[in-house]
Please model this.
Amino acid sequence: MSSVELARPPKVAGPGRAGNRLRQGGAPPSRRGFPAFAGAFAAVVAGTVLIAVHASFYGNWMIDDAAITFAYSRNLADGFGPVLQPGVEPVEGFSNPLWMVLLALGKLLGLFDSGTIFGIPDYVLFPKGLALLCCAAILVLVYVAAKRVTSRPALVTLIAGAALAANPSFVIWCFSGLENSVYALTATALAVVILCGVDSGTLLTAKIAVPAGALAALAGLSRPDGVIYAAAFPIVVALFTRRGGVPAAIRAVLLSAAGFVVPFGGYLLFRWIEYGRLLPNTAVAKAQPLPTVNDIAKAGAVLQYAGWLLVAVAVVCLALVMQKPSKLRAAMVALLVPFALSVIAFCVLQADWMGQLRFATPIWSLGTLGGTIVIVETLRRARVRGRVLLAITLVVAAASSVSGFHTQGKNYRDTPKTPFCSVVERDAMVTNGVADLLKLPDSAKIGVIDLGGMALVSRLQVIDLAGLADRVIADYLRTADFAGERRYVFDVARPELISLIGTWDTTLGFAQDPRFEQEYEVLYRSPRGPAAFGDVGVWVRKDLVRDPALLAAARNYVTTETQKVVAVNSVAHLRSCGDILRPGQTPGS
Model:
């Protein structure tokens, strides 16, 4: 036994002499090496193409919240710093610094927020292209992991790619403009690094421990809940380390902690210096409650979405491969730890208004990786009768899940949540036009709910009434002090314009506050109805429209232009909104 007392799985026969030579560091014969590479390449490309085809089903749609990060990326690249708008107080209104920096790099390279690429606006193409690269990298990682424990790694990769491509939750959120793709990539990379360490017996070495910690840090810099993956390496070490290897295990965990603390701690220091907080302002505004035992019930939503029968098949196959000690069992234990952490993170987070299980993306990538491996290996090892029975059950389960996926995807395509470009046209461009009509200066303020498109295109100073990018309002919302927020809005900020959607005027208490009616004149209020996007209102401060003719002109302008956007959105909500977006644009400009 080596000085590193690691509980290693027993050796099992490899796929042949070439496989044995490869594990020992020798190069495989060229006549077998090229087919293996070709199979791997074909599997990754095929899976990536399938994912891209599904993504194209949603057109140019991106969620408006993604544009919040776009605005920060633009201002960082343009030299204004990571702020929502040039010249405003630094507030961390984004929760995905890694994704924000990647987009800023794209802008510096002229690939993002600069024009068009192949005739497609780059604010659409670059985030989606980056997401597709992340998906391809996930499939490469699937192959790397599968090659360690199966004799059919290309088949596993191809099936995993098809499974991810069929899953609307995975595809929708990876290509929404948000950080989901890079978040899933970092979580999957961490799991595969740990698996490789367990499989090769090098788990406690620096070459595994440090990258594991660094990848956990990148996950935490992709989303706040990603910090949970810092626990993955220590848990796996605890599961595989024998009594005599405790000192080496402690050293490895400390190395992993260093790999995590250096990048993540560095960003925390930057956050404190730049923004004066240890948490992103978004987390303060959302007031994430402490977890409870009842939160675990949220896992049922994931099971239902994936399909109970398909999950049951995967669980049965997992149970079968876990019966006897083997390299595959050890690998599954290594994968189950980060997978379990991803489920815990999903359950702890508050339910998300955007739908389609937005926070489940790492669950899909990790679950698909592990599930595909155990299913393929169980099929390979089973006798003829068992193989036939399992294959039939798998076909029925997959058909049931795919049917559910088709319904979910079609429904979301028909009524996607808050299209970014629709908000640009409905809120930002229309209010820019009325601001021009009223001759408001650029220093004038507008209170808004949908923030992303406004931050990119409004020429006015944006006040985020939902608190994501406003420190004062976030503090009020953290304690549900809506009266305090109203005092701040009506007595201190006093925005010249206010744009509200849905029932936010009721939620924030504006509709019940006498100051709202006394100080603001309605320019447009849509009929209350089930169409969330069309349910919008715009108000102007009364002292700006004392002339009845000016008030009438402003009302006519906002009503006419808003109704145009709402009408178009009902049939073309998957569109983009021009080749390039800049502050001050108005309808038709």
About this structure: Residues 384-414 form the longest helix (31 residues). Strands lie at 116-117, 120-121, 445-448, 461-464, 497-501, 520-525, 536-541. The chain is about 60% helix and 5% strand. The chain has a mean pLDDT of 91.
